[in-house]
Amino acid sequence: MRILITNDDGINAPGLEVLEQIATELAGPQGEVWTVAPAFEQSGVGHCISYTHPTMIAELAPRRYAAEGSPADCVLAALGVLMDTPPDLVLSGVNRGNNAGENAMYSGTIGGAMEAALQGLPAIALSQYLGPQTAGLADPFEGARQHGAAIIRRLLDHGDWTSDADFRLFYNINFPPVPADAVQGLRVVPQGQRQGSRFSAMPYDAPNGRRFMWITGGSQQAPAREGSDVAANMAGHISVTPMRADLTCHASLDRLAQALDGPAPQAAQKVAAPKVAG
């Protein structure tokens, strides 16, 4: 098997080393693992692409490259510049921190997998949830390291990998914030949203008097509805969520169409102001 890996934490991130181990096990002795990852951390860039400026690519070792761009840029670089034939599978991660719930909308890890799916390739994003139970571990990625390859094999055997739909599916895996031996199992669940936890901006005044801001995240321990990815992770389960690059709310289409479909509305006629005799 020929596997392309990327991430959003950067080429030197410890989670990428975990993913290299997982990918090497999956590829087998006759396979290949190609690494194309951002030269610098790209957390929070989502599905951003460097559309308005060039991206430098540096070869660090055979089949290992750093690109000064986003994870989606890295996938595009691999497919359009670096690899002579497309990979059989694209893996993105292992992210330092979860990409469950609303985090998925901001995630560069998800963005890399999404770009691969848009290019017609099988793709999986992997993230390691962190919390109090992982803080003291010698390897906070041990859940992903020990369970990652087996979960991906099961997905490859049982996932929907057809590409005839408008938007090809990709998969989002989150490993729970517990030691590897405390993982409770696997749950296939939808994306959730944490209650009362939002990203926000914090002002910062520099010594020279200029004003800046920091973006701050909300609590990652906040609860989400039962049966969601967040709830599964907080209960010690690995979550698997099928996703696609389609933001349409299909549940609302029929009702809204019944209310709005029809001829184009007429523009309101301007009413002339009454003339005042003088």
Automatic annotation (TrEMBL):
Annotated transmembrane regions: none
Q: InterPro entries, alphabetically?
A: SurE (IPR030048), SurE-like_Pase/nucleotidase (IPR002828), SurE-like_sf (IPR036523)
Recorded GO MF terms: 3'-nucleotidase activity
Tell me the Gene3D superfamilies matching this sequence: Survival protein SurE-like phosphatase/nucleotidase
Q: Which residues bind a divalent metal cation?
A: D8, D9, S43, N95
Q: Which cofactor does it need?
A: a divalent metal cation
For this protein, the Enzyme Commission number is 3.1.3.5
Keyword list (alphabetical) reads: Cytoplasm, Hydrolase, Metal-binding, Nucleotide-binding
Quote the Pfam families the UniProt record gives. Answer: SurE (PF01975)
Top-rank taxon:
Bacteria
Q: Provide the Survival protein SurE-like phosphatase/nucleotidase domain boundaries.
A: 3-195
Q: Where in the cell is it found?
A: Cytoplasm
What exactly does this protein do? Nucleotidase that shows phosphatase activity on nucleoside 5'-monophosphates.
Cofactor: binding details:
Binds 1 divalent metal cation per subunit.
Q: Which family does it belong to?
A: Belongs to the SurE nucleotidase family.
This chain's protein is named 5'-nucleotidase SurE
What is the catalytic activity of this protein?
a ribonucleoside 5'-phosphate + H2O = a ribonucleoside + phosphate
- Supply the enzyme class, top level: hydrolase
